[in-house]
Amino acid sequence: MNLRKPAFSALFTCLLAAGFSGIASAASPNDPATLGKLRDAAMQSDWSYQRLEDMTDLVGPRLSGSAGDAAAVEQVAAAMRALGAKVTLQPVKVPHWVRGEEKGELVDYKGRPANITQRVVLTALGGSGATPASGLVAPIVRVRDFDELQARAAEVKGAIVLFDVVFDQGMADRGLAGNAYGQGSRYRSTGPARAAELGAVAALVRSVGGADYRLPHTGATNMKDGQRIPAAAVTAEDAMLIGRLLKRGPVKLKLTLTPQILPDADSFNVIADLPGSEKPEEVVIVSGHLDSWDLGTGAHDDATGVTASMGVLHTIKQLGLQPRRTIRMVAWANEENGLRGGNAYFQANKDKLEKQYAAIESDGGAGRTFGVQAGIRREAEKYFAPLQKALLPIGAGVLNRRDSASGADVHQLEAGGVPSFMPYVDTSAYFDYHHTPADTFDKVDPLNMKRHVAVLTALTWFLANTDDPIGRAPDQK
Amino acid sequence: MNLRKPAFSALFTCLLAAGFSGIASAASPNDPATLGKLRDAAMQSDWSYQRLEDMTDLVGPRLSGSAGDAAAVEQVAAAMRALGAKVTLQPVKVPHWVRGEEKGELVDYKGRPANITQRVVLTALGGSGATPASGLVAPIVRVRDFDELQARAAEVKGAIVLFDVVFDQGMADRGLAGNAYGQGSRYRSTGPARAAELGAVAALVRSVGGADYRLPHTGATNMKDGQRIPAAAVTAEDAMLIGRLLKRGPVKLKLTLTPQILPDADSFNVIADLPGSEKPEEVVIVSGHLDSWDLGTGAHDDATGVTASMGVLHTIKQLGLQPRRTIRMVAWANEENGLRGGNAYFQANKDKLEKQYAAIESDGGAGRTFGVQAGIRREAEKYFAPLQKALLPIGAGVLNRRDSASGADVHQLEAGGVPSFMPYVDTSAYFDYHHTPADTFDKVDPLNMKRHVAVLTALTWFLANTDDPIGRAPDQK
């Protein structure tokens, strides 16, 4: 072979370049082979699903301040220590609200036969005040929105207000479940306080969710101490019943709610680190929230988020890999009724947010996962092609760029510039179970759970190792 | 026109025959025009749907012996009197079982963290005995069938038996919902007594039904006084939880059930007659049962059956028609936990069963109605063609002949030779709601209700007027 001929020389250059490129690729932690191995390992493991079973079956409900909350902290910390992660418990003072008796009875309405009262299925909202132990009786004023509330202010005084907002399942089916939820949940969050300001003695909201099995959906409501009135969610069926009876004439409800607000309790953000090899001070968070409501076992909301995040560390450890940046699994305290965990972390890190390289939170359940929602700037989008390519074979290759993609616990980080991510999940059925007694282990499909872990693992690994300038979060509105 | 020509003569004969046939048809109460008018009047009326709303919204649950039961008797009787029907209240002594507190907690299992117990969602079965007010604690023995119960008799003594039989929704979807129900309900009916015989201290059954919203499905269980132990239905989710925990090790349940069995109470079969013009002593029954379980408002089970049967009389009255035989609407007392109403009627009529011309009961809810199930002999099938033809336009032209087609309340009549009928209804979703808190008015589709009334009306009218020898019921096995 005569190497002095230009043609051969060019060929050699090409081969050299190709060879160099090949070597560089093999050396990069984000090469297709590594991402593929992580994806496949996650798809072949039921480790996270087993942790999900442990959390929901052995601990069960994990309302902030409860014994379940404390037990879950221990359980997650122990599992992470067993993997060899560096575990830190970050103390967080959490609200300690305890559900009491809850009972509703329609005691007067037009056409009521003698001795008949109609039971209303309801559940207290987190933060609800209490009625007298013997209950209170008042007429119901049903409103469809805040305008109607204001317009009927005179009737509201001394009454029980029912915010009767129908969950838009059609919107959820069109991929906008979060928006449908938001339409209803704003009445749950702020309605009782606004009713209290007008002199209402209690407030009801129609359950925010899509199923028709007479399930009450609880959730938080925001009332300051001066405004605190008894507040409950009624089932869709009971809201409809009240609506029909109100067409006949006035309706009176006897409401008994005896929740208690105890002094703030001790809880913890469970933080488990896989230290980075090159930039250990730069952190990529992968997380879910450890607390849940008390009615079900918080399987989709959010044991899946926590145990899938735990599975990211498991998968990486299983393959003997070490990331360049530190990968930090966080099981947040008190997402549901206070966000105290996310707030404590933000407060502790707000002066060095540049070290928070990226933050992922999974808090939409483990339905079918299509890909990733990315709170990144438009110019960063192109760098995620290798990740998308690695996730394509499991139907999760979508990158849905948004100006904001933070779960509630990392929202302050995102507002501070930390690029945030969440799995892109089919949530059309999520609000059927969310915050109800029916959010249980059996609702989680094992294959969907594996896919969820695979997406979180590939995403976390990718962020922890990328050389690309993905930059900071888009400006938040 | 030369009429002597044979061709013309034949034509004339044909026309004569056709004309005669036409006249005969117009004169018969079962001619297509009359059946069509009844069908169309029912399809254009929401009278039954309004009565359904009255019954479920104003009265609500109607458990035998309760105030709701009494109020429903009054409500139906008043509505029937208002139509001009001849109303009789047939006294029936009914069981008076009252639900008390009901609570389940898994208080010990392998892997249980300190201070944690797991709530089990359950509801007492009708006829259940009571635990001590402070509850009882015992290990759970989970069995899949009676063979396993016998094989594990030694473990059963002193234990709480869980009959964990999965509802076969696939079977229900294939049109065999009743069979799927029967596979589970036999464990509910007889399981607790059999467990008691082996020394069990309580019994649980997995709820018999298809939905996955952590709904307990109540129902009757048959225990003699000596066998009476506490017995409850757990939700499918809780049965699965117990099954998973039992794979880890022994599981103990604290069970608190405080139902009471009070002295038998007074109730009534509400009987409303449209007397026949030609054979008033011959009776065609159209019926449903007035009592319901106490958790929901018994909309599908069986307010639809009662109010659709009431609608038969309303439709016929609306058109100013009088049947040849007497049409008798019956709202049966105490189908759910005793069958005392059906039994009282049988006892009062057993010596002249030949006067009970036919008996219809609707007790499968008001899903989409396809036609009629007919407990008639094969040779009688052909006579129903005019009825089928009249119901064809509303998609209800099916005649499903069976050896038995009696609802529970008319079963003794059928066994005594009375041809029995029920609407042929899509029941694939019926057992999602049946015997649960979610069996409420909103679950009934108004159009399906109209179709249901139309089928019952046409069928009742047809039977009350037919000249055909439809004969007696097939021999019962």
TrEMBL record, chains A, B:
Gene3D superfamilies attached to this UniProt entry: 3.50.30.30, Zn peptidases
Localization of this protein? Endoplasmic reticulum; Golgi apparatus; Lysosome; Secreted
Keyword list, A-Z: Carboxypeptidase, Endoplasmic reticulum, Glycoprotein, Golgi apparatus, Hydrolase, Lysosome, Metal-binding, Metalloprotease, Protease, Secreted, Signal, Zinc, Zymogen
Single GO cellular component term: lysosome
Extract the signal peptide range.
1-26
Question: GO biological process: what's one of them?
Answer: proteolysis
Under the heading SUPFAM superfamilies, the entry gives: Zn-dependent exopeptidases (SSF53187)
Name the major location: endoplasmic reticulum
Q: Which domain of life is it from?
A: Bacteria
Entry GO MF terms: carboxypeptidase activity; metal ion binding; metallodipeptidase activity
Q: Where is the Peptidase M28 domain?
A: 269-458
InterPro entries to which the protein is assigned, alphabetical: CPQ (IPR039866), Peptidase_M28 (IPR007484)
On assembly, the entry states: Homodimer. The monomeric form is inactive while the homodimer is active.
Q: What is this protein called?
A: Carboxypeptidase Q
The organism is Pseudoduganella guangdongensis
